[in-house]
Amino acid sequence: MENNENKKNNKKRYHRYHNKRKPKKDNQADVNIQETDTNLNLNDAEIQLEDILEEEFFEDEDTPAVQKIESDENEEKVEVVGVRFKKVGKVYYFSPEGIQAQKGQFAIVDTARGPEYGEVFIANKLVGISEIVPPLRPVIRIATPEDAIHNQENAKKEKDAFAICLEQIAKHELDMKLVDAQYTFDNSKLLFYFTSAGRVDFRELVKDLAAIFRTRIELRQIGIRDEAKLIGGLGACGRPLCCATFLSDFVQVSIKMAKEQGLFLNSSKISGTCGRLMCCLRYEQETYEYEIARTPAVDSTVKTADGVGTVTEMHPLTGLIKVKLHDKDGDIVKIYHRDDVKLVHSQKKTDKE
User: Fold this and answer.
1) Are residues 137 and 161 in the same domain?
2) Predicted local distance difference test score (pLDDT) of residue 9
């Protein structure tokens, strides 16, 4: 009986696996297509709506982004070099292969999409084996002046490619917004990043671009947060966007943070230029959580020097609370510091507050 049951389960897994690998029909939209010249394999297209600006460097996940992981002092150490490919981007670990790299230098490293030109952000150092996913991809060499010139030439080509792609999008009347164009260092691939409200069938666009540039063409749909990071701009504070200046990765932000910080829950006040919740809500969240835990919640009963009352308002950062005292002449509201009152009955803090 067990063998029969195992056979049935294996058969189900087999069909599920192969159903996922079935090619899409011609009338389905294509969002991520990798092609070479005019030999197009359109059936390999697949939708990708997640933020994928730099993930193509390590699609096989051999080289992870740097993460803060506490490692055991006794565990095995591995020598690494940290490299990033954008001015404000994730830092990835590479094996130095005997090369001594200094912070600020540029290097040619091996990635999933071929050799790439990047900046050394972390010089040679030893990290715990738990912080990496071996085997690490190698540093090929320290970049030469010729490599720097070639990288600058690629930047110029990308501007031209961007303009040409815009013309082709208008020609095909596609509902998509082109955000960026990037060449791989060895010019073996040209990537276009775009945003769109829905699926886009751009097979004819890919054919025309492949015929014009005579290289491998890839179109990738990105999220609106990545669009803001690429384009840049000014935030509500008047300063350049955090994601475009120093944030290497997007942090998780929730409406609960805005509530706990006492912000007015108006979407225009707590949303960034991308339309999502502002990343800066995260910056002071730990401080707010600590101070809120020390401050009596609204509707809690406290004992003051003037008698027992109910907390009507709290200001966690200053430690001040407003207390409504029940007096024979009527209710009186006074302000106290949380250290000057004694908690009698605690009102459980909830997300509704």
Assistant:
1) no
2) 52
